[in-house]
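Sample pair:
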Amino acid sequence: MTAHSFHQTVLREYDIRGIVGDTLHATDAKALGRAFGTTVRRAGGKSVCIGYDGRLSSPDLSGALMDGIASTGIDVTCVGLCGTPMLYYSVFELDTDGGIMVTGSHNPPDYNGFKMMVGKKPCFGEAIQALGKIAAEGDFETGEGKITEVDVFDRYIDRLLRDVDMQGFKVAWDPANGSAGPAIEALVKRLPGEHIVINAEVDGTFPNHHADPTVEENLEQLKQVIAAEGCDLGLSFDGDGDRIGAVDSQGRVVWGDQMLAIMSGDLLKELPGAPIIADVKASQALFDRVKELGGTPVMWKTGHSLIKAKMVELDAPLAGEMSGHIFYKHKFYGHDDALYAGIRFLNAITSQGGDLDVLKDGLPSAINTPELRFDCDDLRKFEVVQEVKARLEAAGTNMSTVDGVRVQTEDGWWLLRASNTQAVLVARCEASTEAGLGRLKIALVDALAQSGVKAPDDL
């Protein structure tokens, strides 16, 4: 195989992702395998783990990927169909020199992609661009690696159960027909309490609803089950099991930053003063809550790989994103495992009175928009954010530029950033009053208009 160039949109900040048959093909998977295997071999590595999600295109892509890796002389261990967290776990459990998960995560069914680890750390940013360069130059190592299959499923479930410390709740679980469904079914059989699992069958067409727990309409089926069965709460998952959502017994969504606040209330009893990281989309109420609990709040960039790297830098025991990625280094590996996060969430509820509704009621209230995602060309989206940033800096605006722009005013804050996974801009506003929220929305709409971007209708 000679030099290979990837489509300009697929090499993202923290993973590789595209539309199958359009911007992403099996030839890309094979070239990635060759580039990745080359990188691992040159770093002194000998083996990698591969897993794949339930999308219809995943078996073909993973096959091409493994062939590419093996052609560089690196041995491949395939752990099969699984959630992304089980692939991450297998890299630690089998002590390989890296891993790749073939997954489209929460994107529509025609998308797919790759989440990568080199050694025991995430592969992102410049490291992903370096893979593209190796492929473009055809600068591959050659050899004859072996491809073997290993079943780590039971070991993974046992590991999840090691840290269970909860009362017997009645919980509804919704894997959303994603690849973590079988693991969730196996897990709940061994948890205290009563558990109802819906949409457990792995189906790459996602027949019941889109597998994204941050969009409230995707939680409607879960809410109906909670109400019909009298559940204490419900937990929802994305297509590859690394993001979690929650709903209380009244059908109210407990958003990612609220989950993190509840988890912090538990963790900071054991680790007072610890740094807890959240992304720029999180509510100011979360950062204030962590500080009030005696922790050290840290605002950081959105993106699972970026958060994981920051956790290592700060030795943080816990981190999370509005999108439902929750990362536990405390007693765990520091990666985003939504099943493990679900266990720790149930533990945290138990240690703080046992009633999620009461805990949600006790969180500071703020008036905010949901995360707003609106279409913008994959290349233009970054330019828009830079233009807005330049104008705000020229005006001497009080803001954070950790990731996009987060503007602070007397009313609250508004955020604008470019998504690293889709051709969209992301915005959010939060205020203490409705009038304040209105002023923040006007400021955001104006900032977008000056760059020729029409704000979404729901802003």
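The longest strand covers residues 111-118.
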